[in-house]
Amino acid sequence: MHGQPVAAYWREAAGRSQQVIDEAGLGIQAGQYPFLAAIDRAGPLTIGELAQAVGITQPGATRTIGQLLELGFVDMQPAPDDQRRRLVSLTSKGQDLVDHSKNVIWPRIAAAVADLCGERDGPILEQLAAIEDGLAAVPLARRNAARIGFRF
Predict the structure, then answer these.
(1) Is 147 part of any domain?
(2) Nearest 5°: phi and psi at 44?
(3) What's the CA gap between 22 and 42, in Å, rounded?
(4) How many domains does the chain fold into?
(5) CA quadruple 115, 118, 124, 128: dihedral positive or negative?
(6) Residue 118 lies in a domain
(7) Average pLDDT in the 76-102 region?
(8) Can you tell me the distance from the alpha carbon of 143 to that of 111, in angstroms, rounded to the nearest whole number?
């Protein structure tokens, strides 16, 4: 990937994070986590509020929430003050996933990234190339030997 745009590095990083998530058997995509995090932080939100919080279009948010509903991580109910508004909230399964992710998944990814990045200094593209070389030698999912063992 040397010489490719920075955006390519970010896509690669997302793929490597997904590998950690897949190995944990969580049944969720990395791109769905921001929705769960927004609900965890703010409490129940409308689709429009979620779209704004995550920074995507409302149709994109509707699609993702539909997937999370099917997986059982969120629930959608009419707002108590206005039956026309529908609020998305975490189910107990969704809250368990968020709690597990905070305590196990994200610390594992953070530790692997810290190990990988060390105390790098210099131009960003050179640092990214060095990080890429490090990931080629030892993938992100293998940088922290702790096993997760959490299945949904």
Answers:
(1) no
(2) -55, 135
(3) 27
(4) 1
(5) negative
(6) yes
(7) 94
(8) 8
CATH of the domain at 126: 1.10.10.10
Q: Is 90 helix (H, G, I), strand (E, B) or coil?
A: strand
- C-alpha closest to that of 100 among 148, 44, 145, 65: 148
Give the end-to-end CA distance of the chain in Å, rounded to a whole number.
34
Which amino acid is residue 11, in one-letter code?
A: R
Q: What residues make up the domain containing 31?
A: 6-142
The two structure tokens encoding residue 29: 């995509």
| Radius of gyration (C-alpha) of the chain in whole angstroms | 18
The pLDDT tens digits of the residues spanning 40-80 come to 999 999 999 999 999 999 999 999 999 999 999 999 999 89
> Does residue 148 form part of some domain?
no
* φ/ψ (deg, to 5) at 78: -60, 145
**151: in domain:** no
What three-state secondary structure class fits 148? Answer: coil
Q: What angle do CA 98, 100, 102 make, to 5 degrees?
A: 70
